[in-house]
Amino acid sequence: MGIEMPVPAKPEGVDAEVWEQMLHATPAEARHLIREGKFAAPTSGLCPGYAQANLIILPREQAYDFLLFAQRNPKPCPILEVTEVGERMTHICAKDCDVATDFPGYRIYKDGVMVDEVDDVVDYWRDDLVAFIIGCSFSFESELIEAGIEMRHNTQGRNVSMYLTNLACEPAGSMSGNTVVSMRPIPYDQVVKAVQISGAIPKVHGAPVHIGDPSVIGIKDIAKPDFGDPVDINPGEVPVFWACGVTPQSIVMNSKPPFAITHAPGYMLITDTKNVDLKG
Amino acid sequence: MGIEMPVPAKPEGVDAEVWEQMLHATPAEARHLIREGKFAAPTSGLCPGYAQANLIILPREQAYDFLLFAQRNPKPCPILEVTEVGERMTHICAKDCDVATDFPGYRIYKDGVMVDEVDDVVDYWRDDLVAFIIGCSFSFESELIEAGIEMRHNTQGRNVSMYLTNLACEPAGSMSGNTVVSMRPIPYDQVVKAVQISGAIPKVHGAPVHIGDPSVIGIKDIAKPDFGDPVDINPGEVPVFWACGVTPQSIVMNSKPPFAITHAPGYMLITDTKNVDLKG
Lengths: 280, 280
Hints:
The structure is a homodimer. Chain A is an alpha+beta fold. Chain A folds into two domains: 16-136 and 252-275, PSTPO5379-like, CATH 3.40.1640; 138-248, PSTPO5379-like domain (PSTPO5379-like fold, 2-Layer Sandwich). Helix content of chain A is 22%, strand content 25%. Chain A is built from seven helices and eleven strands. The first copy, chain A, has helices spanning 16-24, 27-35, 60-72, 138-146, 152-155, 191-199, 247-255; strands at 50-59, 79-82, 106-110, 113-118, 129-135, 161-168, 178-187, 210-211, 237-243, 259-263, 269-274. In chain A, strands 1, 2, 3, 4, 5, 10 and 11 form a seven-stranded antiparallel beta sheet that branches. In chain A, strands 6-7-9-8 form a four-stranded antiparallel beta sheet, covered by helices on one side. In chain A, helix 4 (138-146) crosses helix 6. The radius of gyration of chain A is 17 Å and the shape is globular. The first copy, chain A, starts with 15 loop residues before the first helix and ends in a 6-residue tail after the last strand. Chain A binds chain B through residues 60, 63-64, 67-68, 71-72, 79, 82, 84, 92, 173, 199, 202, 280, and chain B through 60, 63-64, 67-68, 71-72, 79, 82, 84, 92, 173, 199, 202, 280. Chains A, B: Keywords: Lyase. Chains A, B: It holds the Pfam family D-Glu_cyclase. Chains A, B: Belongs to the D-glutamate cyclase family. Chains A, B: GO terms for molecular function: lyase activity.
């Protein structure tokens, strides 16, 4: 394995034996454990070196607008794969990968309102659905950790903190709304390194969108994230904000398509794609 | 203007006074000369530093498939802008820019067959059309020239040589076909530099797709390009091939959508977007 990585803390509620299996799983093995319903928790820190991914599933009717939205907003919505209409299996980012079962958690939206949270969406599947698999900042965390930068949510066994901002996305057809960001507290003397390392992988959100004062991007209380868990920010650390693949959920809440499925924030797909293959 | 650039040779058939105007025009002024019908020739070498662009216009009915095709094939089809349905004016890559008049030449396709070549498409415009503005390798030529690399087609006053290859694109829905490439002869000792300079701007096709033996990518006779003009390849030079925004024309010919409009190969849109803003 080469470099020794610090082990992330076990998230609350996860069976110790399953956690041990997840820590040593290949991406395919991790997806199978998730598919079998054994793991339903945040995936940060798992399968280091492999890209993790966000999800939004929409009917074909809304798919063009969303694809164009993603093209116009590549920072929050870097697309790794778009499935064929009605097709649950991915072909590009992973093999033997079912978008209806292989995320540890899903949210169902009707007319922009969340109506259900479920472990799989087999019962919600329809022949007209298209899945958009979107890059996730969990992907570059392993490189930040290798560079000696602590991922506080990992060491605290929590989900990353995510916030709705006042940064408007470029609208496309029926799709509009504001950017969601993930936040990591970084010591001042590691901020530049964090920018450069993450900036090298635009397909998983790339460089931060904001560094420092949360109020500048419309975040009122850093201790109260809109998604995920709060994490400690220690003296000498600055909050650094990356565009987040939960942005499509803010778009769904704002644009109110009749039907949408997303992943649960922090509960990501672990793909077969290596981060290194997404560089450049 | 800083660095002195070599002046490209006047293409055949262009009025000397108009050519002089084009050589000193801003992108907006160049578009106006083209819109007024005064310039209908290849645009390579004009407005150095500004991105030039390819065009494909499709009915909304086929737009999702093409947008997905471009997402899956970013090397030949890096999208700079997609216009709103029925809208002729661009909003992102240029201001005061009409996609129906501001390219120096257009081709009309019905069921995959070219049926007309025209200077503007005002009479062909329909309310259901979507224009895809796609990056062009003419954009990075000014940086290659600055680096001391001759653009043979410029110095010969010819259109760049373009070839249909055997490199299959990743299909998407109804869209499939092979990659078209542009070719520039480069002295051996400048090939690496050419790769690095062009590779820094993926939005205008980025690094080459092939260097050397044309037969490896299915080109039978380098002296007979499928689009554009032949150019001289001197001893000590190697043909270098870049993915080309004429690829959508090969897709149209292969996939046979009922209606499509493209630019005439080499007759590009000159945008207001600086190459430097497309980097990274």
